[in-house]
Amino acid sequence: MATWKTDPAHSTVQFRAKYLMLTAVTGYFTDFNVDVESEGDDIRSNPAIHFTAEVNSLQTGNHQRDGHLKSDDFFDAAKYGQVRFKGTDLEQIGVIKHPFPIGPRQKSYRLEGDLTIRGITRPVTLKVDYEGQVTDKQNRIIAGFTVTGKLSRIEFGMNSAEKTGAGKLVVSDEIRISCDIQLIKTA
Fold it and tell me: How far is CA 143 from CA 51, 161, 183, in A?
């Protein structure tokens, strides 16, 4: 059994939502953790995947907006301090095609799991691009992934339904997720 931990200096977790249905606003969690246990040195070998993000670490570049997102209208950080994900199934779905040859072709996966926000757990499906595994100068084994997906904020109890004069939601229901995750084998 191998254990893998997040390299926070080389990982990001972000989300995007449309504002006024015109432009996207991007937010980040700065305090998050990904733990993976795999059957061997290949992190893709029957992995047990757990993710947590601290809601109070959320940042969008605007203090007032951050406060609103942490309020009861959205994440309700006072009551629900963490976003959690537990992977339930990882299945290879293809090969990543790069615009120019950069080494071995990497594989793409469908990751299914249970996402919990505001105490509400729903199944989600994410796309995972496995970027590869290397051994660094400190002789550590490091694996890299790009994770993307989307979810409905309303399904997770983020019911802020403020509308524009034209009757459209001020903040879109669809939230896009984009993560770059680097994991270090620790045991």
Answer: 16, 40, 5
